[in-house]
Description:
Chain A is an alpha+beta fold. Chain A has helices at 15-23, 48-59; strands spanning 2-10, 28-35, 38-45, 64-74. Chains A and B meet through strand 1, strand 2, strand 3, helix 2 and strand 4 of A and helix 1, strand 3, helix 2, helix 8 and helix 24 of B.
Amino acid sequence: MVIAGIVVQLHPQDEAAALAAVQTLPGVRYEGTPTPGHAVIVLEADDDRTAEASLKALSEVPGVLGVYPAYIHSEV
Amino acid sequence: MQLTRRNFLQATAAAAATAAALSATGCADKKANPKSDLPADLEWTKAVCRYCGIGCGVMVGTKDGKVLGIKGDQENPVNKGLLCVKGWYLHKILYAEDRLKTPMIKKDGKFVPATWDEALDLVASRFKEIIAKDGPDAVSYYGSGQNMAEEAYVVNKLFKGVIGTNNVEGNPRTCMASAVAGHTTTFGKDEPMGCLDDIEAADVFFITGSNTAECHPVVWSRITNRKLTGKDVKIIVADPRRHRVHEMADMSLEFIPGTDIALFNAMAQVIIAENLHDANFISKHTTFQNNEGPIDFEKYKAFLQDYTPEKAAAVTGLTADQIREAARLFAAKDKQTMTMWTMGINQRVQGTWANNLLFNLHLLTGKIGRPGSTPFSLTGQPSACGSIREVGALSHLLPAHRVVANEAHRKEVAAVWGTDPAKMSPKNGLHMMDMFKGLVDGRVKAMLISTTNPGHSLPNADFYRKGMEKAFLVVIEAYHPTRTTELADVLLPAAMWVEKEGIYGNTDRRTQYIPKLVNAPGEAKSDVWIFLELAKRMGFGKFFEHYTSTEVIWEEYRKLAKGTKMDLAPYARYKKERGVRWPVPTDDHAGTVRRYSYPDDPFVTKEEGIKFYGKPDGKAVVFARPFQGAAEKPDADYPFWFSTGRVLEHWHTMTMTGKVPELMRATPDWYAELHPEDAAKLGIADGDPVKLTTRRGTITLPAKLKARGIPQKGMVMVMMHDDRIDKLANLLTNDAVDAASKQPEYKLCAVKVAKG
Lengths: 76, 756
């Protein structure tokens, strides 16, 4: 089980579209944008491999400037 | 409502990320950091990331002797709760299947397990035999910016103070020696005066020779946040290859490889010609020199006439207007400007001069020593500053920025070490490349290596690997096999990261503590333990027997830092605090945010305002350094530029990140980046094998025409991580070194490109 809290930095010009795309990714739950340009999501996956795929997909969304994990729980 | 464990973890993750987002953007409620919000079934302890030189704080969650959770440490001002993707998987490096768990001795070409007594006695006896027969300079040590400070301190004493050789080097010679030489020549003292806090106060970022977005991602998050939330914040990027920094840049200067020396001089020329310089600052705080000696401002101006924008445009491939515009933006009177650089500047035969010229731009404009205005050298390893530059674990250095050539320095150090100063050699030891060349030609018979992988990371690797194979090679490592352990005679298994305690020093003079949280696997031991055992078995035990803890070692080292303006804090403070930036002139001092300027620096008075006290006259030097170019340039036989770089997911030679399946899968193949127009001319399609040949070797990789980076036309780029023996980028790289820093020119050489 992997549960992660992630800050996703978004380009202001693409913020709405990027945020919409982020929310379509499997295992991603949007928690809010506590400060401009910084969306908070919780990523949940059954295993590391699934989490990894979501993470890669996140970083490839147009308008995503950076993906910064803030908390990771991983049952090793 | 009663939360299930899963609900609780979800809530914790959301809270942590929210708090990190707020904290990273300066909106956090200072009271809100919540160790109490972390899952209570894990024990959470602060530590520092194991990877790059930024020193991000991590909270490490342990249970039943294992690390199970990682969280960005919101209380740590470096990263304010954020991590990069490598940090996500940090705990996995401890549990790799190829952890080295027992000492090994090579017999008949094969490694066989040995006891610690067998291995250490063998190493001690072989080193003693070689020293007795060939003298102390026949043995050597090669360490790392990943060593903890206490480790480097002990081994430095063993070799320089007791054995009597200065053949002590470290891999920071490969990554930041030119920054050391640049700082020392310009300011009289090493290491940055600015700090990470300057990011939030800067209006203009000048980023050159640094793919900050991939190599220092948390710094990049702070830069992008400043760019997006500040008023009219600009980013200038100067790099021969387009990479992720360009996505946010306002101005891109894609100069011809190696010609940045001409660009920086041309920017200085524009700054003076257009009266953008700060004459008052220059008069009070600077002197001028060329390569022969002191000059005056007028002679410096005359020197710059060879670098008018038009003349520099012809050399750099930029336009004169681009150069003028960059200089004007850099020097704008009402703006704070911060310059950042790393390997693209340092790994060059003109690396020291390139550092000098970046400092020139700040000194000419007075954009130094105040919030947001500073040159700021980024470092690649977690403790290259703390454990090598500060401890003095290079062949010309002694602790706290002393040098071996200075008799008074040797006496001061010997007095604290409790050793005979007459035993210490007054001449510099062999620098890194010469030391490894010594293994090839037989001048050096034995080498002890700790926490680094020169069998992969040295330039012109094939030549030096032969020497490593021939010599008596002892490698202290956490993993086996690596491209270095395979060449060794003896392997000593090492504890790593939170399997031992110690001190790291990051890129902005922040000294931080890492606790021991879990046991090392098998029989692996800390490097300090290994060094102390070796000293004892070589007959030098009396010089080391008082080192009963890492704290004792630190407190002795601290005596050597006292009064040097590199003063450090007591060990107990680092255990409690999120690091302290030196100088720390008294035990309870809060630490120094910016050096050389009042009121931050306790050694500068209000009347002085700014004082570069590393120089006897308190003035920094503006250098007239001419453009010369790379040691090896493209020609008819080798018509392309070859350069090396890094990606976000991996770190150095992948001894750690290569053990994380998720990171390996994120980079499923290694490749050669080509410009699409070059590829078309050569009939190369995306994915085709490409044969790359330099005067030192040949490798074949698939071509990539749309990678994360796009090299300019006439340039090929390969990542240095790939550890396959026939694909090492360093089979191609040039081992020519900068005359002052002795740092090799990894970044530039000439290559032939053909469809493979």
